[in-house]
């Protein structure tokens, strides 16, 4: 990241009295302290700031923006698996747990997201001491912003490509817009014998597979911005399933998230 990038953040302040109106212009520059002050024909105040002095509460902050010689929205590389990078990109991975509801994934889930196809998570019906309250393994991948997602892929270790496929699986998406909550087609836990409190997350379904025998599953995503991705699967009726890696690939530019009216 270039620390010498000049960003002219301009604030216009208007002061009015009963008899006249005066105009004052203040120009803020972040970085580039070795450059001369800007020049304008009209009077103005100039305030020089360094990057280290920026206070997000006063000056705002950037998210999913690349800064070099210009400001630009982030371009996603369709060959890069985003799953291991979610935390550093402002996203997160949550799982549904019986007592606390949605929570950060436990250590036993980590092999699915470590970028190592030789490690694995075993889908044997024991979802982590939930005593049967959680019927399915449920994960939600929060991308940390709105993205065009190209595809999702998950698969077992190579030596179990034949026998450890997931027989029944649901994959869903949503754009994170809170105004749409409760209106999407699939509600997590709907139809369970006892749906855990706090499980209220809903999604549009992009895959609803039953009697599946494919082990390496690739799902092409719809061409619309996505914030959250759902994975849900029960234990197999016969045998166990496993996931060595759960991979997410993006494409295109980061989209601005939806905003709620004040």
Explain briefly what this protein structure is.
By secondary structure, the chain is an all-beta fold. The protein is built from one helix and 17 strands. The protein starts with 6 loop residues before the first strand and ends in a 7-residue tail after the last strand.
Q: Please state the overall shape, judged from the principal axes of the Cα atoms.
A: elongated
Q: Kindly, what is the distance between the CA atoms of the first and last residues, rounded to a whole number of angstroms?
A: 35 Å
**Percent range for helical residues?**
under 10%
Radius of gyration equals: 24 Å
CATH class of the largest domain: Mainly Beta
Task: Identify low-pLDDT runs.
Answer: 1-22, 67-72, 256-262
Q: What about the largest sheet?
A: 10 strands, antiparallel
Q: What is the residue-averaged pLDDT?
A: 80
- Which CATH architecture of the largest domain? Sandwich
CATH-assigned homologous superfamily of the largest domain: Galactose-binding domain-like
Strand content range: 35-45%
How many beta-strand segments?
17
Total number of domains: 2
The third-level CATH topology of the largest domain is Jelly Rolls
SSE succession: EEEHEEEEEEEEEEEEEE
In DSSP terms (H or I, runs of 4 or more residues), the helix count works out at 1
Structural class: mainly beta
Write the layout of secondary structure elements.
Blueprint: E1 7-16, E2 21-30, E3 45-49, H1 56-59, E4 65-67, E5 71-73, E6 75-76, E7 92-97, E8 101-104, E9 121-123, E10 137-155, E11 169-174, E12 186-187, E13 202-209, E14 217-220, E15 225-233, E16 241-243, E17 245-255
Parallel strand pairs: 2-3
Antiparallel strand pairs: 1-2, 4-5, 6-17, 7-8, 7-10, 9-16, 10-14, 10-15, 10-17, 11-13, 11-15, 12-13
């Amino acid at each position: 990241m270039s620390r010498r990038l000049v960003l002219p953040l301009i604030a216009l302040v208007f002061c009015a009295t009963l008899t006249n109106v005066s105009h004052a212009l203040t120009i803020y520059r972040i970085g580039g302290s070795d450059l001369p002050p800007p020049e304008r024909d009209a009077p103005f105040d100039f305030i020089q700031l360094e990057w280290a002095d920026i206070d997000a509460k006063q000056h705002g902050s950037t998210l999913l923006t690349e800064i070099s010689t210009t400001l630009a929205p982030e371009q996603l590389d369709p060959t890069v698996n985003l799953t291991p990078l979610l935390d550093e990109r402002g996203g997160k991975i949550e799982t549904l747990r019986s007592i606390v509801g949605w929570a950060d994934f436990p250590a036993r889930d980590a092999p699915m997201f470590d970028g190592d196809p030789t490690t694995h998570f075993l889908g044997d019906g024991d979802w982590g001491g939930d005593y049967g309250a959680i019927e399915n393994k449920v994960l939600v991948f929060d991308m940390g912003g709105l993205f065009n997602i190209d595809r999702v892929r998950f698969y077992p270790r190579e030596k179990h490509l034949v026998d450890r496929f997931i027989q029944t699986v649901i994959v869903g998406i949503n754009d994170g817009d809170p105004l749409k909550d409760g209106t999407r087609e699939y509600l997590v836990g709907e139809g369970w014998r006892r749906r855990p409190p706090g499980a209220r997350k809903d999604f549009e379904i992009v895959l609803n597979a039953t009697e599946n025998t494919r082990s390496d599953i690739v799902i092409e995503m719809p061409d619309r911005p996505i914030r959250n991705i759902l994975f849900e699967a029960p234990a197999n009726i016969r045998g166990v399933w496993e996931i060595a890696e759960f991979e997410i690939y993006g494409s295109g530019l980061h989209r601005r998230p939806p905003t709620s009216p004040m």
